[in-house]
Amino acid sequence: MTSPFHPDLKQPRQPRETANGSQQSPPWDYPTVANNPADMEKSAAAPTQNSTSAGTGVNHNGHKVTKGIKPEGESGRRGIHPIRFLQICWSSASFASRAVNILWPVVPAAIVVRYSHPELDLLVFILNYIAMVPCANLIGFAGQELARKLPKVLGVLVETTLGSFVEIVLFMVLLTSDQYAVIRAAILGSILATLLLCLGLCFFIGGMKREEQCFSDVVSEVGSGLLLTAGLGLCVPVAFSVALSHSSQVPSQEILDHKVLMISRIASILLICAYAIYVWFQMHTHHGLYDDLFQLDEQIDADRHKDLRKPKLTFTECIFALAISIALVTLIAIGLVEQIEPVVEHYGVSESFMGLILVPIVEKAAEHLTAMDEAWDNQMNFALSHVLGATIQTALFNAPLVILVSWGLNKQMDLNFELFDMVMLILAILVVGNFLRDGKSNYLEGALCVIVYMIFAVAAFYYPNPPQLEGAETAGGSAVEGGATEKRMLMSWPAI
Predict the structure, then answer these.
(1) Beta bridge partners of 5
(2) Is the dihedral of CA 5, 10, 15, 16 positive or negative?
(3) Residue 139 pLDDT > 90
(4) Helices 479-491 and 419-436: crossing angle, nearest 10°?
(5) What backbone torsions phi and psi does residue 410 show, to the nearest 5 degrees?
(6) Which of 4, 121, 133, 476 is the 20 to 30 A CA-CA neighbour of 213?
(7) Contact 369, 96 (CB under 8 A)
(8) pTM of structure
């Protein structure tokens, strides 16, 4: 916890007044001296949720508020209006999202080239890779519009879940093609990309406008604790396999592989239980605390008055946008995954680099853009909630979900990651945890996070493919045997 004195006024913070008139100290305590004074003046003029609808039944734009819809998310329209829908998707998005929308012509080009010239492996891969970005961005924008209509905490959770939908689709498509090594690398790569690259860019972009940015220790400490739990859960199968790979206590490698598989499945169930407890904590028992934090972020947002005046999508248009974008993402993901094996075999790209770096960047593009836009607007609690929330969801839900689905499909997918990947994960959690500890961020910390990610990317680029994993794993091959062979090669590396 930081000092209870504001660095500018040198006076104690005033306690907030509760509903019964009593005084209560705020549940958080962090300074706002680093915030730009101009931001505070603009945000003071921005209407709050209460002022837009109190006693009038209309919101800030004069639209009648529908029951169950938050005033700031009310569009004033019903149904689907195609022209208006396209205009809002373009004009109401952030600057970064509008820039990404320029890539939409690549989407039909990727689909056409995939079916007309399937022999052009590299071109099909590049086009589908680029086409994934605007489709993922549309999911993020539609999720953001939908979140405006919901209570704050629920809205953030829904937005984070939709931002991870591309990742789930890619994992399932990879699972159907038995590319287990790429899935394992992509799981950890997604965590690293969000935790180091996205968080680093948030710190850097926000720090370019302000000397420091502050955030609540409620968000950072809960997030750090869950990340450590997730890291432990993902490391146990690897540690078990490495510790017993040359032990006489295990009669054969097949028995060890089976034990690792069972540990992975049981650990996946427990990790999903941990995620369910986290959601209950955030949505039910402590939702008031998170509501206060998010409301504070809205009040210090310099552009809030502009965002409130922007036209909004209707609820039907949000669902329509999600349906279109999810269908396109699924189609493009299939085309992208089909080309991973040829690209790895013919163009010298390692599976580690493909899974740890290339796939995660595109699958979390929408989440990254949203978080960076919030950091630019000095909404650091929102930004951290998206970054840490997406990382936690990948580690505690998406990765275990893949294991359980593979179990149901009688596939041998496990959590027997590369030892190289696990070391990078633990180091990343330690680095980020150290930066979150003081409740402040600046552009230096952001730059350091990005540099660490770039070092990991270089190492992944030069990491060799195991001989049996050059290309995709076949359906008849066991992923557990592949993972065990990887460990034996790694353990015997000094002798080589």
Answers:
(1) 12
(2) negative
(3) no
(4) 80
(5) 60, 40
(6) 133
(7) yes
(8) 0.75
